[in-house]
Amino acid sequence: MKNNWNRREFLQRTSAATMAAFAAGAPMSSLLSGCSRTPKPGETSGTADTVILLWMAGGMAHTETFDPKRYTSFEKGMEGNRVLSTFKPIPTVLDGINFSDGLQSIGKVMDKGTLIRSYVAADMGHILHSRHQYHWHTSYEPPQTVAAPHLGSWIAKELGPKNPVIPAFIDIGQRFTVGEAEELKAFHTAGFLGNEFGPFFIPDPSQGLESVRPPVGMDAKRFERRNQLYNDLISNGPMGEYGSDYQKESLKRSMEQAYMLLNSPEAKAFDLSKEPKASYDIYNTGKFGLGCLLARRLTEQGARFISVTTEYEPFKGWDTHENGHTRLEDMKKQIDGPVAQLIKDLDKSGRLDRTMIILASEFSRDMMVEGRPGAKVQEQVQQPEILSDLKFYGMHRHFTDGCSILMFGGGIKKGFVYGKTADERPCKTIENPVHIEGIHQTVYHALGIPPETHYEVEKRPFYSTPDGLGKPVLDLLI
């Protein structure tokens, strides 16, 4: 970048999007893979062609949700070590498999999917939500010398859009005006793959239509002039002078895709007011529930990868540093009905067979253990040994040695349970541990993306999972 540019010139000649893409880098060579056949645009050679990630941001306690242990009711003055689950277990549609109270609706659709009870999060020392979320979404532990692409970006790059009008990667529900904003941005990116494969952001699903409309007061001609100005900025700014042809074309294509969507009939899918009231009311439990509804509508229009999050904001949502039990009562109300309805709707329409749904969180929680047995990390929560107040009743510490994941559709087994955690504290994984590279490669395998997929970046191969060593968990697939 020119050192003699002043601030005004910089602001006039470039934009945040341009500089972000410029910094991200670009592949130095074409795709190197062992594919015997490359799928055509809009086609896959696997059992799935769409993925919906339902992200429980903040650390969802497995023993309070999909892997309940012995229930102990609250008593003032009780010993904290006695408490494993603060909700009663309830039966699911699967014989002998219980969920915790408040998840009845999801329990009734488990005959359509798989429950993983043995996900093990990475041991990265001092626990930070953004670090573990980065790892889950990219399969790479931070920091990296290059910007690692998000799971959705790999899929968007390798398979392209199903419908050229609908963005291949759509992210619903996460704002970047809350705590750890910059850290969250670090993995919400296509990295070196280029801007066109990054997420199309919809922070609030109830305002989804506004995401595909010009700002208020801007007519179509003015918007078109801005589009031309954007192209001029790419050509005449630092990107034009220093960026690679790949970077410049990627930026232009990302804007062309947005412009095409703006003028398309498919834009109506973003308008939730078009949904019949009876259906809307089932999903309307808050931002996450409406995000599930929007995900269903976008899947019907040909979206490739959609992430819907409960949104990570420190000390809110699943980030239960106090009032764990009462907070989870509310979180379950937000997710139970919408998740179950999403699965039922896609199943009824026949799309579930080709749509993989994943429900997951960065790690789990435990009242007494921070990190994992044998690898405890710095305590971050003051959890008294004697519970004198209801606010201490719940899962407050971060636990990485036993987490639950749900998977449905797209070739995933039906009515299947994989892995096991101990029934007594520490409730850690004791059978069939699963790590993030296995989850990613299972998704790629179902989509027909070869495990050896990689690009040459900084004169070394960068694989879709670290060193290309990730293996799909074939036991999860039909």
From TrEMBL:
Entry's transmembrane regions: none
PROSITE patterns to which the protein is assigned, alphabetical: PROKAR_LIPOPROTEIN (PS51257), TAT (PS51318)
Domain of life, source organism: Bacteria
Name of the protein this chain belongs to: DUF1501 domain-containing protein
Annotated source species: Spirosoma pollinicola
